[in-house]
Design brief:
The complex is a heterodimer. Chain A is α+β, with helices and mostly antiparallel strands. Chain A is 42% helix and 19% strand. In chain A, strands 1, 2, 3, 4, 5, 6, 7, 8, 9, 10, 11, 12 and 13 form a 13-stranded mixed sheet that branches. In chain A, a hairpin with a 2-residue loop joins strand 7 and strand 8 (189-193). The longest helix of chain A has 30 residues, at 52-81. Chain A is globular. Helix content of chain B is 68%, strand content 0%. The radius of gyration of chain B is 20 Å and the shape is globular. By secondary structure, chain B is mainly alpha-helical. Classes of the chains: A alpha+beta, B mainly alpha. Chains A and B meet through helix 1, helix 2, helix 3, helix 9 and helix 11 of A and helix 2, helix 3, helix 4, helix 5 and helix 6 of B.
Chain lengths: 396, 192
Amino acid sequence: MKWLEEPQNEAERLLREGLDQAAKRTGDEITHRRVWAKVSEALEAPQPRFAFSGRLLFAGAATALLVAASVVAYPHVRRLSQGQVALPGAGAAGANGPAKVAVPIPTPLPDEVQPRLLEAERVPGHVVSTGKGERARVALGGGAEAELAENSAITWDDQHRPAVEKGSARLAVPHQPPGWRFSVTAGPYVVTVVGTKFEVNVASRTVGVEVTEGVVEVWRGSHSTRLVAGDSWHGPLHPEENQPAAAAPMEKPQPLPAASAKPVLPTSRGLQDAQAALQAGETNKAIEILSRTAQGHGPAAENAAYELGRITRYNLNRPRQAVALWDKYRIRFPAGLLRTETDLSIVETLSQMGEVRAALAEADAFLARHPTSERRQDVQRLAERLRAAETASESR
Amino acid sequence: MGQKQQTKTPLPTTPSMADAELVRACRAGDVTAWRSLYDRYAPLVHRFASALGVPVEEREDAAQDIFIAVFRSLKHFRGEAQLSTWIYRIAARHAIRLGRRRRTRETMRLTMLNEKPTVLNDPSERSTQIATLDRMLDKLPPKKRTVLVLFEIEGLSAKEISDVVGCPENTVWSRLHHARSEMVKAARRMVP
């Protein structure tokens, strides 16, 4: 019998319920996928090795650096505690809410020198700005960073998204895990990416986006424009001023060659409900909700179509049916955001089923289709094993 | 003996694979086995880290560090304890270290900058009971908290807990007894 299973009073009941709920706090699927993406990436990186003496040396050097840093930082921290200057990352949000603070960039840097990466406090209203002849590199979280040109400013909106206020910011965003997007705002537009390099310019009347690598979507309200590497786009900073009042609402920015508008689902309620059903152990209910959601359009439908395969594979343990569902996903969303994950899931599932030839074909197709995938090495190793297995079975 | 041993195609993992086989496959560099091990234990690590007080904004990083530690030291896993016990041990050590760092950071902020620590709420954990439980658990010393969480939330036996925390079983029972009574007292104070 569990402790406090028969609570004697309100306090014991509260405690028991808290413990029961804590036992269900297992994290959501997207969090787990995000963590796995980071773990697999870290495991591929070479592991640093220190001998015992090396460790001592490292500890000594770290202590020396710490002491040196304290000596240098002491006057700044003292001034900060007196309320004079705020350092980036030292907590601009005080008792009166987020403060608007300009980050001092000590001296203009020559072009070839990379500015130091600033770990700014990413709270709504905090501003990092550069003056004439200054540049700054700002960490945006999750490995993303922005390089501010002179006379530029970046801040964070109420949803903690970075927002380019003025000037020009060149952004580099590492590949985001499946189902996860990085967003930055510029005026009334939201630029969402999966993993790419691009530049956002905010002038007095226009907003511009130039894509160097990957795919970017510029959203305004429920309309979007998709840009690929080499594309650029410009839209008015205040679209409502440019439109006659009587005209039909023109939410889409200036049309671009090859740009397409697609509707967006404001919420993915279906996915949340399905997640809740799964956590409650109601797999069939989750599948029912996901099937309904998958019949819709937009990112929620795409996510649901992928999830159907995943649940069938791992919760129902029906690998063949899961592969069929993922195949359906690929037919419907050939360039979907979860395409890489889907291809990978199919390779893994087929190899686990012992379908060596099919798995090998899928693995080769994966390597051809996703030459820059973070999982490329994993798939390469798997393909080698499968090839060896195929050769061994043929020679018997 | 003398019979030709049948060779079987070495294929990656199957979902029903036992922990010992999974560990063997991971050590052999089977990437699908790594993923299976992660999928099997990610919810456990998340739940355990949450109950040990790792705040929501640090939970992903904590889980990442724990799994990297697990994979990198898998070669040292001797299989004497259960794999889960071993993972709990790594996770507990990591969570306690994080807690110590957090407390130092908060003290520094308070003393040097006179700044109150910010507490972020996980939108997925808006339950009053969970929030109350976390507040009560925060008041427990780390050793008692670990034992209580392992017993009451993770459902481990006293023997398994003694393996995780590295103390005799009697000490586990004693810590559990004290932790329970402190929790009941704290709960009484919270109920109007």
